[in-house]
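Why do we care about 3D structure at all? Because function follows from shape, and shape follows, mostly, from sequence. That is the central idea of this module. The next example makes it concrete: a single protein chain, its amino acid sequence, and then its structure expressed as tokens.
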Amino acid sequence: MKKYIINVLAITLLLVLNYSCQDDYVSNLSLDGKVTISKFSVGNVEGTINEKTKTIKVIVPDGTDISKLSPVIELPEGAVITPAISANMDFSTPIEFTVVNGSIYTKYTISVTEQFYIAFLGTAPNVNGITEDDQKAAADWFFQTYDNAEYVSFDAIKNGSVDLNKYRLLWWYFDGGRNLPAIATDPIVLNAIKNYYKGGRNLLFNSHACAYFWDLGRMDNTPYPRVIGDGTGFENGDTWAIGANIGAHNVTNHPIYKGISFNQDGDGYNWVPTIGPGWREDHNYVLENIPGTLGLGPNNNEAAYVEFTTRHHAEWLGVWGGIRDYWMVGVMELKPTTEFKGKAIYMGIGGFEFNQNEQGTINPGGINLYQSNINKISKNSIDYLSLKN
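And the structure:
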């Protein structure tokens, strides 16, 4: 019986195969069409096509309105694309396109970004000429982190060999003392940077460079006492931090703190460590006695916060770790004004060192346990200030 069943199945299979081979079956599928984009361009800029990832990236000059672009695309014969290519397309966010030809299709994601540059500002003729250890460490990190970074010297500004408007951001990490270098306050240089800032470009100043905001005229002459540390430093076993609760105001959601893991005390006070035990230069450039100077004591008086931030059109972003009132300002954002249309970050707080010195007996190797926090806050600040205003 089993042999009979197997024979019947074999004969049936042969009949089916024979019928299938002789049947004139016609398919409606068209599988011969090509669905590859051969060219995608915006103006004179041609996009880079990656067939493996099915992405196309177009980098246009800074200042291009990417919300109103009229791209040109080359498709295989018979292919159509959805959504259709038209004038004034908005590429503010990447767009997914589907190319269809007959019965086959493929999808591409097309993104358009602006090519812009950011600059590290300094007195040396080039990066290799920087001698101050923290400035050199900051510059090295900057150029390792950003491929659109360039170096700009004050001398190049004075002799007119650089166009500052090429850059969305100038970062000056000056850690060389309370007296600014003469080239920075040279009238030609000062006027060039002032016009740059007034025109809507952005600034990030660290340590003693914060003094430049007064030279530029962005900070007025309200006589706040300034704590300016510029000595050789000392060692101790403390951890120094930035406090991100400014009196009643929790500022941990500001862009410069994006992705930062804060330590939090029992009362909800948030702080981020910046330098661990060992040698610290203590190079502050901070403001203190804010309530007393404004005649709005005591130190926890909310009116002092309102007056300071309103008067200077600023957002108060950081204090010495542990301070829970409005006594001092170590970090702030200077918001755009009708005169100064750019944004700026004032990072004057001590302990924000890019190179913890290899000195003393506590930490002779100079390994800062919290260097990653400095790097992260710096990157956040640069990325924030690199956004188009």
